[in-house]
Amino acid sequence: MITRKRLAHALRKRWRKLTEPRRGDDVLVDLSRLVKPAMIFDVGANIGQSSQKFARRFPSAAIHCFEPSAASAQRIRERKLRGVEVHALALGSEAGTATLTLGADPATFRIADGGDEAVAVDTIDAFCATRSIQRIDFVKIDTEGHDLEVLKGAAGMLAAHRIAAVQVEAGMNPENKLHVPFEALKAYLEGHGYRLFGFYDQASEWPTRQPHLRRANPLFVSPELFARPAAR
Q1: CA dihedral 155, 161, 162, 167 (to 10 degrees)
Q2: What is the sign, positive or negative, of the torsion defined by CA atoms of 19, 81, 144, 107?
Q3: Mean pLDDT (whole number) for 97-116
Q4: How far apart are CA 158 and CA 194, in angstroms?
Q5: Is the pLDDT of residue 104 over 60?
């Protein structure tokens, strides 16, 4: 015979299961099930929207925030986010300088020839070597078409599987000329042993407003997570 107490417990358990986010709903929820992030890189941080979410979800994590626009980087600093260190520079395939194309919306700033603002460029590998960073738990990349170059600059860390999870912004159809095609990003990361975990933030075509998928933010995970028990 089921007691009232046992029935209440079963109902609460069932309710939690029904209301908890499903895989693919929230990248930070899914990430927390895979690993306990202690080191996070926010590449193409804009004005710190993602870093703010990271700091709230993982309050003990060290978060390195990379934003090439000096004005946008300053806006992030003014937020005074816990655990966030802001770097006013771009990340790419090699160290040097580049130009940033500006616009009315900071979210659309991008590295391009003949841009408006000169910026310094570093690589993830070189930055980690300088800072003696041995492992990154999560790298989020959103650089408006420069994501593959950022990955190439992390070739050493990726080859050694010292990055646990990587999220990129990918173009999902031929009409999208801004973002790196998903196939190119997938091929590069799979070449280092990484595998696709899921898609997030899927958006249909704009400005034509066609129903086909324009872009998405796929998450890839390193081989070391394949056999690892879920994070507790």
Answers
A1: 70
A2: positive
A3: 66
A4: 8
A5: no
Q: Check residues 178 and 218 and name the one with the higher pLDDT.
A: 218
Q: How many residues in total does the chain contain?
A: 232
State the pTM of this model.
0.85
Q: Where are the domains of the chain?
A: 29-225
Residues 116 and 132: their CA atoms lie apart, in Å, by 33
- Closest alpha carbon to 180 in 144, 218, 220: 144
Q: Write down the mean pLDDT value for the chain.
A: 87
Structure tokens at 230: 């879920």
- Helix, strand, coil content of the chain in percent (nearest 5): 35, 25, 40
End-to-end alpha carbon distance in the chain: 34
pLDDT band, very low/low/confident/very high, at 148 (cuts 50, 70, 90) = very high
CA 199, 212, 205 angle in degrees (round to 5)? 90
Fold (CATH) for 29-225: Rossmann fold (3.40.50)
